[in-house]
Amino acid sequence: MKIIKAKNYDEMSRKAANLFFSQITFNPNSVLGLATGSSVLGLYENLIRSYNSGDLDFSNIKTINLDEYAGLGKTNDQSYHYYMNHYLFQHINIKPENTNLPDGLAKDMNAECKRYNALIESFGGADIQLLGLGLNGHIGFNEPSDVFPKETHLVDLEESTIKANARFFADEKDVPRQAVTMGIQNIMQAKKVVLCVSGKQKASILKAVLFGDITPKVPGSILQLHSGLTVVADEEAMSEM
Ligand code: GLP
Asked: How many CB atoms within 10 Å of residue 164?
């Protein structure tokens, strides 16, 4: 694993964006695995800046997102569809038909998980997968569990995840209790993985993820086995290492 240390959130965002900048420059047909949450917002801002200055072209880029809340549609401003359009897609020249997220409103969630899993398989996984880290060690919405779930699946969110994500909602009771997420195999299939971690509140879980036991109780710990992992973390997130 490679670890890139950044002074703060802004530097982490720039350094992580540089990895995506190189990927898109060297392979303009890349499949990007994308994530949501606050850790990756600054990275998206940097990519938009590079696009606006004429240094990046997304016209042949494809994207596959990690996850989506069950029950939230594209127009709901808390859905990950909405987030991706709002913070990235509408600002760059990506073709909407080249962007992919699980459908949170699918009538048959099992069929939707199968469809999304097959889509990831058809790409052979992402060329580069962006990840944030949950406070409980989750990646995507793979919550702590007794096994590493392999494929795209419907997951019950942990109480701690619901609480952590409540900050984006008007009320905690509005946070969906379930989500569709890429499984661990879907994520590990990516050729490269970029994990962005910022802030003191992530320091102890980041240490456990990178240097603790590899266990489904700490889902992100599986990343220790990925040969193309780059961690971009700020000083606060690395303060316990
Ligand atoms: C959500 C997402 C994760 C993300 C995590 C961390 O639960 N499903 O993919 O990594 O939040 O979010 P943040 O970066 O806001 O701390």
From this structure: 18
Res 122: pLDDT: 98
Among residues 76, 85, 98, 136, the one annotated as catalytic is 136
Please check whether residue 71 is in contact with residue 39, taking contact to mean a CB–CB distance below 8 angstroms. no
| CA–centroid distance, residue 65 to ligand 1 (Å) | 12
Catalytic residue among 67, 68, 103, 127: 67
Work out the widest C-alpha separation in the chain, in whole angstroms: 47
Q: Contact at 8 Å (CB) between 197 and 39? A: yes
Q: Is the CB of 134 under 6 A from ligand 1?
A: yes
How far apart are alpha carbons 58 and 84 in whole angstroms? 14
pLDDT at site 51: 98
Per-residue model confidence (pLDDT) at position 240: 97
**How much is the pLDDT for 68?**
98
Q: Is the dihedral of CA 12, 138, 131, 98 positive or negative?
A: negative
Q: Write down the pLDDT at residue 21.
A: 98
In which residue ranges of the chain is pLDDT below 50? Answer: none
Question: Is 86 an annotated catalytic residue?
Answer: no
In angstroms, the Cα distances linking 68 to 38, 113, 140, 161 are 15, 11, 9, 14
Residue in the block written with tokens 């195999």 = 185
The pLDDT score that the predictor gives to residue 119 is: 98
60 is known as an active-site residue: no
Name the amino acid, one letter, at 205: I
Residue 133 is predicted with a pLDDT of: 98
One-letter amino acid at 222 equals: I
Instruction: Tell which atom from ligand 1 comes closest to the C-alpha of 179.
Output: 8
